[in-house]
Amino acid sequence: MNPYTHRERVISALNHIEPDRVPIDLMGQATMLLDKTYFQLRDYLGLSPIDPIRSGTTANYYDERILEYLDVDFRRIFLKKKQFQSDIDADGSYIDEWGIQYKKTGPFYHIVSHPLKDFTTKDEVENYNWPKARDLFTTNGLKKKAKEMFEKTDYALVARNPLTTGFLDKASFLMGMSNFFMTLAVKSEIAHCIIDNLLRIHKDTYSLFLDEVGPYVQIVETGDDLGTEENLLISPEMYRKFIKPADRELFSLINKKAPDAKIFKHCDGAIFEIIPDLIEIGVDILNPVQTSTRGMSAQRLKKAFGDKISFHGSLESIETSQNEAVKELKERIDVLAPNGGFIVSTCNHLIDVAPENIIKIFNTAKEYGKYLK
User: Are 164 and 201 in contact (CB under 8 A)?
Assistant: First the structure.
């Protein structure tokens, strides 16, 4: 049998056909290496420094050399952000393009000011200085790069989520979570107005991106955190009333702009109740598959949805001992890999992980994840 290319391996798995081995992924949405972990792995492998792919976050590096070393099946295409001028205060805080103020505490940036927190009318929302896609991003050289990656490499190409957050995430960042949740409950017209403005920006951004790369990508990333360890952040009814229509409209646009691509949805937590909704509106790949949260065991997910959606992620123990991490990996492959529909990756960004653990996990995934014995 002829060996699979990386792209063929991924396409087969996403079509619920067993390829030669389970695909593996790293450095995508929620699977980046925080800078400390990246530097440790880079130095462990004896690699020279490179420029960051972005700034202002705690995971700023995308390194093709590491992906090649680990034999990762995917490569990301980024919609490049334009330089945004923002004064950094003496305490390290800054205001982003959306008017949200952040401050770095430890390894993470935290929101310290929500620009819509005192808004009480639709007029205030409509008159807010909403960012425009063409002011946020540039597409210079993007189509040429995507075409070259498609023709000259055999990797599965992914349109990296350009906005990172989704509708519930961003609305909570703008208004404050408690304020926005109260707005959902008692001022639905304002909640709809905020989401409508976010949807417009999302559609404009994905149109800008996919008009350039749509013919060349196999996956388009989207994301929104809708769950906690125990439950959904909002009720299924509220999701279906406020968020699902916006998701549906965005996914419809993505399907038109990239008709051959699968839609990837990052959605943390215990979200079992709304997975049928995600499938209904076009989600093909669910990430990060947090099996430790309530009702989200690998066995339950595979039995209920294994023929309808692909699972991406599921590794939560990589920061523990190698033995625990390998044990978890093998258990996830045993349950989620049969009949395809599984991609090995981590459940979250790698915060402080030993290089030896990362290398061990990916090498084990390639060997243990073989379908053709």
Answer: no
Mind giving me the DSSP string for 107-147? TEEEEEE-TTTT--SHHHHHTS----HHHHEE-TTHHHHHH
**What is the residue whose two structure tokens read 């961003």?**
170
Give the DSSP H/E element, type plus range, for residue 159.
strand 156-159
CA distances from 74 to 126, 194, 345 (A): 39, 34, 11
* Residue-wise burial string across 171-187, b where 16 or more C-beta atoms lie within 10 A, e elsewhere: bbbbbbeebbbebbeeb
Kindly write down the DSSP assignment for every residue of 282-302, as one continuous string: T--EEE---TTSTT--HHHHH
| pLDDT tens readout for residues 87-138 | 667 677 888 999 999 988 777 788 999 999 999 999 999 999 999 999 999 9
- Distance (Å) of CA 307 to CA 14, 279, 284, 302, 316: 10, 11, 11, 8, 23
Q: Kindly report, residue by residue over 56-76, the tens digit of the pLDDT.
A: 778 999 999 999 999 999 999
- Residue labelled with tokens 């959306």: 98
Cβ proximity of 51 and 334 under 8 Å: no
Q: How many CB atoms lie within 10 A of CB 193?
A: 20
| Residue 184 near residue 255, CB atoms below 8 Å | no
3-state helix, strand, coil in the chain (%, to 5): 45, 15, 40
* β partners of residue 344: 24, 313
- The identity of residue 130, as a single letter, is W
Of 341, 344, 336, 337, the closest CA to residue 366 belongs to: 344
Hey, which CATH number is domain 6-85+115-368, 3.30.1490.20, 3.40.50.1980, 3.20.20.210, 3.30.870.10?
A: 3.20.20.210
pLDDT for position 65: 98
